[in-house]
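Q: Hi! First time doing this. I have a protein sequence and I read that you can turn it into a structure. Is that right? Here it is:
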Amino acid sequence: MKRTQRHLVIIAAILLLASCASGPQVITLKPLQAGEARLTDIQMPEYVHEDLAYDVILAIDSAETPQIRRVCFRWLTEEISSYSPSLYCYAMNGTFGSGGPCSQWTSTPTPGSSPFCANTSDINTAVPGRVIVRIWPIDLKTSYNMLEGQVEYESNGELRLTNAVRTRVNVEK
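A: Yes, that's right. Below is the predicted 3D structure, encoded as structure tokens:
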């Protein structure tokens, strides 16, 4: 009896760990409209060096294979602050906006690179549900730590844009 209970506890623990395991994000998404395409993921090597070619893989969800016109990217800097506001700011119900006594703790987005788009010869749509794009990073800054991508496609005679997706990267010089 004790042996059976131990096995059940072990199986329950394994199932619990498996359900929490890191994997692709499962997002509840609204159904796609006719002709609509949506990006669900972006993958590329974690470490990036300037002037080397990289394949960026975009997962695209659509009812039919969209006619891709171009794929554009931009490098972003996401600053993560380890500082937190003093208790004084909270106690005095401080203003965190610009000019307020607590403004030094307000995070502001740092501008990234200008958008750059891939040539159509560097875009591969042969794998269903994937857009594979070859890029050659130039003018990288070591502060860039994210790559954002977006696809322009044609549907029913009009140009449309997908949502943007991001992935973390480490720029090495």
